[in-house]
Amino acid sequence: MNTTAITAARISPDGSAAVIGTEAPDWKNNLFRSDLWLWTAAAGLKPLTHSGSEENPQWSPDGKWIAFLSDRELPGESADADGSASGSGEEDVKASRVWVIAVSGGEALPLYTENLDAHAFAWSTDGSAIYFSVTAPQTSEEKEAHKAEWKDVIRWREQHRGDVLVKQAVGPALAKAVENPAPESKKDKKKGEKKESEAAAELPKGAEVVAKSELEIGEIAPGPDGKAVAFVTGAPHHRVEKPADFEVFLADGKGGAKQLTHNNGLEEKLLWSADGKALYFMVGAGAGTVEGEYRDVQGRLYRLEVATGAVTRLGAEFEGSFEHFALLADGTELALGLKGTEQQAYRIDGAKAVKLPGLTGTYGEISAAKSGNAILVTHSTINEPMQAYMVADALNPDKVKALTAINPVFGERAKPEWQTYQWKSDDGKTVEGVLIYPPGKKGAKHLRMLTLVHGGPEDADGNRFEADWYDWAGLAAANGWLVFRPNYRGSTGYGDEFMLSIVPHVVSGPGRDILAGVDALVKDGIADPDRLAIGGYSYGGYMTNWLITQTTRFKAAVTGAGAVEHAANWGNDDLTFDDAWFLGGRPWEKPEIYQSEAALFRFDKVKTPTHVVQGGADVRVSYLEGVTLERALESLGIPHSFLVFPGEGHGLEKNPWHGYIKVREELKWLEKYDGR
Question: Is 664 helix (H, G, I), strand (E, B) or coil?
């Protein structure tokens, strides 16, 4: 639980250096620290920032500066008890501003001091400016009028405003930050100064509004000609209600934007071709599709011709899921593709994906230099924590130079052994998963077994390192459990047909795959039928809640953030469009499916002692789903426990103690009811 995770790995433009982002628990201060590190050949890996709240580092085109997002306080700005910043005289929102730091050393400087929360940012092509997006500012008069009319009332949709895309010159902004690092308050304004009434006055001085959007601007990509600027939009209310909110736009130079895509996919990771004629983008696994009607298929890679709007799918013959990609200086397209239990590097050749020589395990991220042939990758295996590696020749990613050596304790301890495992489901379909054994127990028989179900469902378990509150299979194995990780139908890495086959039977279909796997392991003599347990979080929680209604073979269940019904969850979930697609329609269109696929209506069959956890502020799977589950267990007299983590959303990202307590209590529950 003390693991440091790599959250970002970006190579410098010339390929000679790298910036690494990490996240680690700060137990004393009840939070996670996000720090940046600089690697150079001469000095190795050294700390770059110190505040513990830095994310999304981006190199300037000349490699002399690194910009990043941070909610660190400015001089004269203090953090209130609720965590919001005060002192600017503006809204009580802790702004995540754009900051800039010199690679040669020194303190980071804010690009602006206004209380503006940056949603995305990017360097201009020549490095003289930074583009960033913020919610369209309001004038003081507008704020006061709204407060007078509405008080503290939330106007559910009407109060949301779109974004503005702003261009800010870096040199003058940093000079101003050195001269006056504190935010200007209303008290500082000269007596008799004319009151500002234009919204632009709320933006930093000298900022140029490049484009306005009714939607949120979530990713920015300046073109190589220094004039074109593309961006991706998203819903300002942060709910995925329709794919039309998520499209690619091109700023028109007049404060507006031209829409380039019109499809049912959620585009991301924009990159320009070197000649500026095309944009590359991805649609991630479970994020819809560019081709035809909405479907949650595996991750795909596309090229968009800016002049014509024509979109070409790249690597279409690849049967797995593309997760990341990069463009080399010569235009070569590289992608990381998940197939089976490993994610490897591929060179894209039209519709083909040619596998490159790689290390056994999983490549997690890829970043390419603007010149030369070097790339930066991350890599891990089940027993080897993720590290960042420099690769001198991008077409040979097996020849690596390690830049990090974090989490060395995992190399000093006994390591769980593992293997892939295949079985036949009830319809004869071959399904695959992973078995993680207690240290020294590989090949042993009649082991107590925890079936730990992954979330998603667009995910897959395999040969990669995980050690946190969500994925604690290695820890369970170290505590004497054989851990079965099934890649049930709906998982990625096994083809689109495999992934799509769970619609609309979103729990009963995968549930049969999982139970068939448990039966096969018992039949093979590997698992002890009297010492079986089940668990999972998110979609894994859905599946756990369902499976305890289908069988009494599990002696214990540990479930988190999993719905027990679908109608209320459709209304509360921030992925409502996705939910309706999975179930074949909206609740009134497919009421029979909403009920037949819901665990709640089968709870009269539950006998399994069940431990439940939920984030108190979860909107992905409403906290009230956990309350409903607990009430059902209570009314049936089933032994249970229910833990709620205050302020946490779907991911337990605020306080590391929440994740620690979650896993601690789950392990205790398994020990209590392990069938001995």
Answer: helix
Least confidently predicted of 88-97, 307-316, 432-441, 627-636: 88-97
| Residue 79 confidence (pLDDT) | 57
Q: Which of 199, 182, 55 is nearest to 110 (CA)?
A: 182
- As a whole number, the mean pLDDT across the chain is 93
Predicted TM-score of the model (pTM): 0.93
Partners of 213 in beta bridges: 163
Rounded CA gap, 654 and 150, in Å? 31
Phi, psi angle pair for 165, to nearest 5° = -100, 120
User: What's the CA gap between 485 and 5, in Å, rounded?
Assistant: 22
Looking at the chain, the whole-number percentage of residues with pLDDT higher than 70 is 95
CB 121 within 8 A of CB 132: yes
The pair of three-digit structure tokens given for residue 420, joined into one six-digit string: 């892939």
Beta strands in 116-239 (DSSP E): 120-123, 129-135, 163-169, 208-213, 216-222, 229-234
Q: Are 366 and 374 in contact (CB under 8 A)?
A: no
Nearest one of 513, 511, 579 to 545, comparing CA atoms: 511
Judged on CB neighbours under 10 Å (0-12, 13-18, 19+), 580 is: buried
Put residue 286 in one of left, alpha, beta given phi > 0 → left and psi -120 to 50 → alpha. Answer: left
80 contacts: CB under 8 Å, gap ≥ 6:
86, 92
202 falls in which pLDDT band (50, 70, 90)? confident
Structure tokens, 71: 């909610």
Phi, psi of 509 (to 5 degrees): -65, -60
Closest CA to 611 of 636, 646, 643: 643
Asked whether 77 and 87 are in contact (CB, 8 A), the reply is: yes
Tokens describing residue 603: 């709870």
- The pLDDT of residue 91 is 44
Asked whether 397 and 363 are in contact (CB, 8 A), the reply is yes
What local confidence, expressed as pLDDT, does residue 87 receive?
35
Nearest one of 611, 622, 608 to 650, comparing CA atoms = 622
Angle at 545 between CA 615 and CA 516, to 5 degrees: 135
Q: For residue 582, which of 502, 499, 495, 508 has the smallest C-alpha distance?
A: 502
Q: Residue 1: which of 493, 534, 663 has the closest Cα?
A: 663
- What is residue 90's predicted lDDT score, i.e. its pLDDT? 38
Strands across the sheet containing 97-102: 54-59, 65-70, 97-102, 109-110
Distant-in-sequence, close-in-space partners of 591: CB < 8 Å, separation ≥ 6: none
Q: For residues 675 and 530, what is the distance between their CA atoms, to the nearest angstrom? A: 6
CA angle 446, 449, 452 (to 5 degrees): 155
Dihedral angle at the C-alpha atoms of 69, 74, 77, 78, nearest 10 degrees?
60
